[in-house]
Write a structure and sequence with these properties.
The protein is 29% helix and 26% strand. By secondary structure, the chain is α/β, with parallel strands linked by helices. The strands form four sheets. Strands 4, 6, 7, 10, 11, 18 and 19 form a seven-stranded mixed beta sheet that branches. It has a six-stranded parallel beta sheet with strand order 14-13-12-15-16-17, with helices on both faces. Helix 5 packs parallel to helix 6 and helix 5 packs across helix 11. It is globular.
Length: 358
């Protein structure tokens, strides 16, 4: 079968090969024919080594498709079911799951160390235990979440990561208050979803911050009340909040420099929500006096900060009701053979989300 493979961490292009085999099928597993997958910035971060991932590997973790085989002992799933892939399934028995913090379950991360694929030259891993830049993938049954027939594969794929992450940051983690002021730094697919979440929660002012003009323009269509470049953020803070700072600031870039800016843009007693996934050697510096004196809440948000299955259902319900726009997030579509074009669109900021049709 065909799959896009990164041979070594640090390479900036994928090779689309036709000699890749999905492996690991057996009890408790399902085999899925991928129909659509989104390109998330986390895929690029894994390629360049910001996020740890054994290589060689098949990127992609935001996918949807059809079950083509079900292993022994799998209940509730059957051949032909339409599913989205959950790259962080909950085991249900670990301390995090028992506390109700299923988004912190580590079972899914352990899958990243087991090869999902094989080539004549040896084993190939799947990013985050999945690897959706492939025609087929074998995953734990818990990773396959059934979707209703009226949800297209491309929409389901987005719900599998970016939409759930952004919406959940605003709704679950920050719990934005109606009438509040919000700034969102980084307006790709996840940032735009955070903007939509803040709008749903009733924020009065939502300022989108991004260096790319087309993304700023898009943010206004999705609910931002104003869109500025990073060097205009200080002026927006002064005009909108009289210099005090925003009630909520979302950092959706994953860099210490933007996180520091976000902290300084948050009012005293306000909330800074960290959504971007950054590198282990990139440190955010805060002094102990400002931590005490400013009393700002710093809230990291992992995968939307809540039960992902509930978040999936909520996103589908909001999409059906016309309360969120998911079709508009998909600005580009490419076949798997043109995956490197999609990577370029993501790196330049040209795309909000590119759908790879497989």
């Amino acid at each position: 079968m065909r799959a896009a493979v990164l041979h070594e961490t640090g390479q900036d292009k994928l090779e689309v090969l036709d000699d890749v085999e999905a492996v690991g099928f057996g009890p408790g597993k399902v085999r899925i024919r991928i129909r659509a997958t989104g390109l998330c910035h986390s895929d690029i971060s894994a390629m360049n080594g910001v996020l740890p991932q054994p290589a060689p590997f098949v990127p992609g973790h935001e996918g949807a498709g059809e079950i083509i085989d079900v292993g022994e002992g799998v209940g509730g799933l059957k051949q032909g079911d339409r599913v989205l892939l959950c790259w962080l399934p909950a085991c249900g028995v670990c301390p995090s799951c028992k506390r109700g913090q299923t988004e912190l379950c580590l079972a899914g991360f352990l899958n990243a160390g087991t090869p999902n694929f094989r080539r004549p030259g040896g084993d190939v891993f799947g990013f985050a235990g999945t690897g959706t830049f492939a025609e087929e993938v074998v995953v734990d049954a818990a990773c396959a979440v059934p979707i209703p027939d009226d949800v297209p594969f491309d929409i389901a794929a987005l719900i599998g990561c970016g939409v759930t992450t952004g919406l959940g940051a605003a709704i679950n983690t920050a719990d934005v208050e109606a009438g509040s002021s919000v700034a969102v730094i980084g307006c790709g697919g996840v940032g735009i979803s955070a903007i939509q979440g803040a709008r749903l929660k009733g924020a009065a002012q939502i300022v989108a911050v991004d260096p790319v003009a087309t993304r700023r323009e898009a943010a206004l269509r999705f609910g931002a009340t104003e869109a500025v470049s990073p060097d205009e953020l200080g002026d927006a803070k002064q005009r909108i909040t009289a210099g005090e700072g925003f009630d909520y600031v979302f950092e959706v870039v994953g860099k210490s420099a933007t996180a520091r800016t976000a902290y300084e843009t948050t009012r005293r007693g306000g909330t800074l929500c960290i959504v971007g996934a950054g590198a282990m050697d990139d440190f955010l510096q805060l002094n102990m006096f400002e931590l005490f004196f400013d009393e700002k809440r710093i809230l990291p948000s992992m995968y939307g900060g809540g039960d992902v299955l509930t978040s999936y259902e909520r996103a589908i319900a909001l999409w059906r009701a016309g309360r969120i726009d998911l079709e508009g997030l998909i600005t580009h579509r490419v076949p798997l053979a043109e995956i490197n074009d999609a990577l370029a669109q993501m790196r330049t900021g040209e795309a909000l989300r590119t759908c790879v049709e497989i």
